[in-house]
C-alpha cells in the first residue's frame, strides 16, 4: 500500500515537472493565424510578441509557393539581398529555435515576395526560460530541481504530495 502511495507521489511530481517545462518555452506561429504570407502585416505581428531564448518560431505556408530564408544582416534585410542567406527552409512547416538573445532576419525566397514586404525581424531577449540541455533528456536530479525553482510548480508539487500523505496516515 505504502509503495503504491509513494509511486503516486512520484508520478505527481513527474507530471508537474513536465508541465513546468512545457510552460517555459513558447512556439510562435509567424504571422499568427494567417501564417507566413505576403499580405500579412508581419512586423505588427512581431511587435505584439515577446521572443525569449528557448522559444521557437514556426513558419506555416504552402510549400512551393513560399520559403524561409534567414538573412545575415540588417542591410541584407533592408535591401532584400537574398544572396547572403545563412539558411533556407521550404517544408511549409519550418521550425526555427531561438537559442540566444539578439536579432534575426527572415524573408521569403520567392522572387519579389521580400520586396512586397514578406520579411520579418525577430528580436530575442534573454528571459528566464531555462535552456533545455539536449544532452540530458531524462537524467534524475536536474529534471526535478529545475521546474521546482518555479514557485507555482513548487506549490503545486507540495500540494499534491501532502494530499497523498494525508491518505497515508
Ligand atoms: Cu513568399
Task: Summarize the structure in words.
It is built from 5 helices and 8 strands. The protein has a 5-stranded mixed sheet with strand order 2-8-7-4-5. A 3-stranded mixed sheet has the order 1-3-6, with no helix packed on it. It folds into 2 domains: 1-25 and 137-169; 26-128, Cupredoxins -  blue copper proteins (Immunoglobulin-like). The longest helix is centred in the N-terminal third of the chain and has 23 residues, at 2-24. The chain has helices at 2-24, 42-47, 74-79, 142-148, 151-168; strands at residues 27-29, 51-52, 56-60, 68-71, 87-89, 93-97, 102-107, 119-125. 22% of the residues are buried. The chain is α/β, with parallel strands linked by helices. Helix content is 36%, strand content 21%. The structure holds copper (II) ion. Pfam families: Cu_bind_like (PF02298). One of its GO terms (cellular component) is plasma membrane. This is Phytocyanin domain-containing protein. Residues 1-25 form the signal peptide. InterPro entries: Cupredoxin, Phytocyanin-like, Phytocyanin_dom.
Unreliable sequence segments: 134-145
Give the percentage of residues in beta strands. 15-25%
Which geometry do the CA atoms define?
globular
Query: Radius of gyration in whole Å, from Cα?
Result: 21 Å
CATH architecture grouping of the largest domain: Sandwich
**Distance, first to last CA:** 12 Å
What is the CATH superfamily classification of the largest domain? Answer: Cupredoxins -  blue copper proteins
CATH top level of the largest domain is Mainly Beta
Output the structural class. alpha/beta
Strand order of the largest sheet: 2-8-7-4-5
The helicity comes to 25-40%
The total count of helices amounts to 5
Total domain units:
2
| Average residue-wise pLDDT | 78
The oligomeric state is single chain
CATH topology category name of the largest domain: Immunoglobulin-like
Organism: Rubroshorea leprosula
GO molecular function: electron transfer activity; metal ion binding
Protein name: Phytocyanin domain-containing protein
InterPro entries: Cupredoxin, Phytocyanin-like, Phytocyanin_dom
Amino acid at each position: 500500500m505504502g509503495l503504491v502511495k509513494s509511486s503516486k507521489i512520484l508520478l505527481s511530481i513527474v507530471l508537474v515537472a513536465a508541465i513546468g517545462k512545457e510552460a517555459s518555452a513558447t512556439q510562435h506561429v509567424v504571422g499568427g493565424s494567417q501564417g507566413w504570407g505576403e499580405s500579412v502585416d508581419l512586423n505588427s505581428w512581431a511587435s505584439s510578441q515577446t521572443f525569449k531564448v528557448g522559444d521557437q518560431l514556426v513558419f506555416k505556408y504552402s510549400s512551393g509557393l513560399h520559403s524561409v530564408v534567414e538573412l545575415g544582416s540588417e542591410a541584407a534585410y533592408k535591401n532584400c539581398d537574398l544572396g547572403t542567406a545563412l539558411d533556407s527552409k521550404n517544408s511549409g512547416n519550418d521550425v526555427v529555435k531561438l537559442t540566444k538573445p539578439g536579432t534575426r532576419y527572415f524573408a521569403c525566397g520567392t522572387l519579389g515576395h521580400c520586396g512586397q514586404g514578406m520579411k520579418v525581424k525577430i528580436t530575442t531577449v534573454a528571459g528566464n526560460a531555462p535552456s533545455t540541455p539536449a544532452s540530458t533528456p531524462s537524467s534524475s536530479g536536474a529534471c526535478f530541481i529545475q521546474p521546482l525553482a518555479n514557485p507555482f510548480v513548487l506549490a503545486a508539487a507540495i500540494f499534491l504530495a501532502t494530499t497523498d500523505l494525508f491518505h497515508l496516515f
